Automatic annotation (TrEMBL):
<dbReference type="Pfam" id="PF01095">
    <property type="entry name" value="Pectinesterase"/>
</dbReference>
<feature type="signal peptide">
    <location>
        <begin position="1"/>
        <end position="25"/>
    </location>
</feature>
<dbReference type="InterPro" id="IPR012334">
    <property type="entry name" value="Pectin_lyas_fold"/>
</dbReference>
<dbReference type="InterPro" id="IPR011050">
    <property type="entry name" value="Pectin_lyase_fold/virulence"/>
</dbReference>
<keyword id="KW-0378">Hydrolase</keyword>
<keyword id="KW-0063">Aspartyl esterase</keyword>
<protein>
    <recommendedName>
        <fullName>pectinesterase</fullName>
        <ecNumber>3.1.1.11</ecNumber>
    </recommendedName>
</protein>
<comment type="pathway">
    <text>Glycan metabolism; pectin degradation; 2-dehydro-3-deoxy-D-gluconate from pectin: step 1/5.</text>
</comment>
<comment type="similarity">
    <text>Belongs to the pectinesterase family.</text>
</comment>
<keyword id="KW-0732">Signal</keyword>
<feature type="domain" description="Pectinesterase catalytic">
    <location>
        <begin position="173"/>
        <end position="362"/>
    </location>
</feature>
<dbReference type="InterPro" id="IPR000070">
    <property type="entry name" value="Pectinesterase_cat"/>
</dbReference>
<dbReference type="GO" id="GO:0045490">
    <property type="term" value="P:pectin catabolic process"/>
</dbReference>
<dbReference type="GO" id="GO:0030599">
    <property type="term" value="F:pectinesterase activity"/>
</dbReference>
<dbReference type="GO" id="GO:0042545">
    <property type="term" value="P:cell wall modification"/>
</dbReference>
Length: 405
């Protein structure tokens, strides 16, 4: 097995040497790195790491505690304790849900933990809410992070499914590294087909992949989600929800066009909120050369699921798939969802052949932000809020700021 490339060996050594000066006073876990554990060196994993393997022929399965990921998740106590699960290389076909409050980290075995393109763990599922086969889109998701199933539902109407008032907040600190989630129901949009669903919970995804055609990533009510160096592939509304999502250095892959890339539903709260989706320092490209030729100038950046939609693409590369108006509008039941001065469908310093200033201005659905307005949102601490109605900003202690260690 190949693990330490020159580049990441260097980074590992650097990371250890940076941390040594503080290590004496810090807890031992501060100098732990996820990297050797993900290379399959079990002794380097955090204490009590649970191991999942479904490859019965491999020697690695001898150390495994479970053959499915969800059985490992269900073995965890419903409390605030921390847990790490190492998933050995392989394909798993199952739906996962995380309802417990305590921190959970899922590590995917990989020989290259610093890229999502070499991931060796894939979780497959096949479901789409075509013709309302399910009571709600949320039932199609591969991974759900939410305290209850009711809290995760999408619902309908301007504010969606009412979440019961006594619903507790869900997971405080969920993390996944180097795991691909593929909803393989169809090779085109055939109804909502989720890869991940996060509501009433905090979730971070690092070097991971999310593949589907419609509604790939769903961040529901009071959901906080951070994506780093991850791949998100879809066709229609493939970043959607009510909560707050920040995509840092991610790759968005257009598998065709439909709706928009983002379709957000804002909520009126008694406190100011910044619910929305922020795509920063990222890239938007056709998924491959053959699809690129057929979608040139046809894909919209987003559309308003309700009038309080908020999304911003910042410092992001746009290939020539993007239509000249950037964003588009949405007429639903005869009513125009886009409301001038209310809906925020914005760009800040986006670039590439998909950027067309004349087209943006003549379309009328796109707001070109200046630096002072962008800076009201410009970093995760300015948009992530404490759950429930306190509404304070700066809720980012669940984010891994140094995921390359
Ligand atoms: C977890 O911690 C929170 C905050 O400290 C506390 O309110 C909650 O009761 C704890 N939950 C469990 C299941 O122990
Ligand atoms: C997982 O599935 C992919 C796609 O079918 C296949 O190429 C790969 O070999 C499989 N991996 C394992 C470990 O079975
Ligand atoms: C989570 O999945 C288990 C089965 O894997 C199921 O029994 C349970 O109802 C699910 N919970 C939620 C909240 O979806
Ligand atoms: C989910 O919400 C519905 C409607 O409020 C309610 O009828 C149902 O009992 C709830 N289910 C659970 C498991 O709480
Ligand atoms: C290109 O991407 C499209 C959309 O995902 C897919 O249907 C097609 O098979 C891909 N073609 C190649 C050559 O990979
Ligand atoms: C939010 O509040 C404004 C002003 O009170 C109102 O015009 C708008 O319809 C509300 N939007 C939603 C989605 O409830
Ligand atoms: C830019 O947008 C304008 C107005 O929609 C259009 O006339 C022009 O062809 C576009 N330029 C390119 C390079 O697509
Ligand atoms: C930035 O844009 C806002 C809103 O359009 C405007 O009020 C403000 O004057 C602009 N600031 C600068 C420095 O141009």
């Amino acid at each position: 097995m190949k693990f330490l490339t020159k580049n990441n060996l260097w980074k590992t050594l650097v990371s250890i040497s940076i941390l040594i000066p503080t290590a004496l006073s810090a807890p031992a876990s501060r100098i732990d790195s996820r990297l050797p554990c993900q290379a399959g060196i079990i002794s380097a994993c955090p204490a009590n790491t649970i191991i999942v393997s479904n490859d019965h022929s491999s020697p690695s399965s001898q150390h495994a505690h479970f053959t499915s990921i969800q059985s490992a998740i269900l073995s965890l106590p419903h409390d605030n304790s921390s847990a790490t699960i190492l998933i050995r290389a392989g394909n798993y076909t199952e739906q996962l849900n995380i309802t417990r409050p305590g921190p959970v980290t899922l590590l995917g075995e990989t020989w290259d933990p610093l890229t999502a393109t070499e991931n060796q763990v894939t979780v497959y599922w096949s479901a789409a809410n075509s013709n309302s086969r399910y009571m709600d889109n949320a039932f199609t998701s591969i991974l759900t992070v939410a305290p209850t199933q009711n809290a995760s539902l999408t619902g309908a109407g301007p504010t969606g499914w009412p979440v019961p008032a006594d619903t507790p907040y869900g997971n405080s600190d969920f993390r996944a590294y180097n795991i691909d989630f593929r909803n393989v129901f169809s090779e085109y949009s055939a109804g909502p087909s989720l890869a991940v669903s996060v509501s009433y919970a905090n979730a971070g995804f690092y070097y991971s992949g999310f593949y589907s055609y419609q509604d790939t990533v769903y961040i529901g009510k009071l959901g906080n989600a951070y994506f780093f160096n991850s791949i998100i592939a879809g066709q229609t509304d493939f970043l959607y929800g009510f909560g707050t999502a920040w995509l840092q250095a991610c790759s968005l892959q257009l598998r065709s066009c439909g709706g928009g890339i983002t379709a957000w539903k804002g909520t009126n709260t008694t406190y100011p909120n910044k619910f929305g989706v922020y795509i920063v320092d990222s890239t938007i490209n056709a998924a491959n050369a053959s699809i690129a030729a057929s979608i040139k100038g046809k894909c919209a950046l987003g559309r308003p699921w309700n009038s309080l939609h908020r999304s911003i693409f910042a410092r992001t590369y746009e290939d020539e798939s993007i239509e000249s108006s950037g964003y588009t509008h949405w007429v639903n039941g005869g009513a125009e969802n886009y409301k001038l001065g209310v809906t925020l469908q914005a760009e800040f310093e986006t670039y590439g052949p998909g950027w067309n200033e004349t087209g943006r201005l003549s379309g009328g659905w796109d707001t070109i932000l200046n630096r002072s307005i962008w800076e009201e949102y410009g970093e995760p601490a300015k948009v992530f809020q404490f759950g429930y109605e306190s509404g304070g900003f700066g809720y980012v202690d669940w984010i891994d700021w140094t995921p390359w260690f």
